[in-house]
Amino acid sequence: QVQLVEAGGGLVQAGDSLRLSCVDSGRTFSGYAMGWFRQAPGKEREFVATISRSGGVTSYADSVKGRFTISRDNAKNTVYLQMNGLKPEDTAVYYCAARNGGSSRYKSEYNYWGQGTQVTVSS
């Protein structure tokens, strides 16, 4: 069973950095590809970043490429999202998700979701 818990959100100013973490309390974390998604008020949940089971393959949304970095530590059952150069348009609830198989940009392909963590970026 996969149970995901995100942490690290908060209120920051434009240009600041945050690191989100997502811990899986299950025992099979290394068997899942992981993704980060976000949802702003009144908008659909959108893809941010994904990472393969080994961590060797990553992919990013164009809007965050060069500013955000996804990584994972399978020994700690944790996936991270390092967010640098934050902008007000990055304000959203950020969710981590897990899926069987390879990494994916599509939220419909993810089997498990965390409860989300709020990130607010002021201008």
Provide structural commentary.
The chain has 123 residues and is an all-beta fold. It is 0% helix and 50% strand. It is built from no helices and eleven strands. It has strands spanning 4-7, 10-13, 18-24, 32-39, 46-51, 58-60, 68-73, 78-83, 92-100, 112-113, 117-122. Strands 2, 4, 5, 6, 9, 10 and 11 form a seven-stranded mixed beta sheet that branches. Strands 1-3-8-7 form a four-stranded antiparallel beta sheet, with no helix packed on it. Strand 4 (32-39) and strand 5 form a beta hairpin. The mean pLDDT is 96.
Name some characteristics of this structure.
seven-stranded mixed β-sheet, 123 residues, mainly beta, four-stranded antiparallel β-sheet
Can you give me a brief rundown of this structure?
The protein is mainly beta. It has no helices and 11 strands.
- What gap, in angstroms, lies between the N and C termini? 40 Å
Which oligomeric state applies?
A: single chain
Structural class: mainly beta
H/E topology pattern: EEEEEEEEEEE
What share of the residues does DSSP label as strand, in percent?
over 45%
Main sheet summary: 7 strands, mixed
The helicity comes to under 10%
The overall pLDDT average reads 96
Layout of secondary structure:
Layout: E1 4-7, E2 10-13, E3 18-24, E4 32-39, E5 46-51, E6 58-60, E7 68-73, E8 78-83, E9 92-100, E10 112-113, E11 117-122
Parallel strand pairs: 2-11
Antiparallel strand pairs: 1-3, 3-8, 4-5, 4-9, 5-6, 7-8, 9-10, 9-11
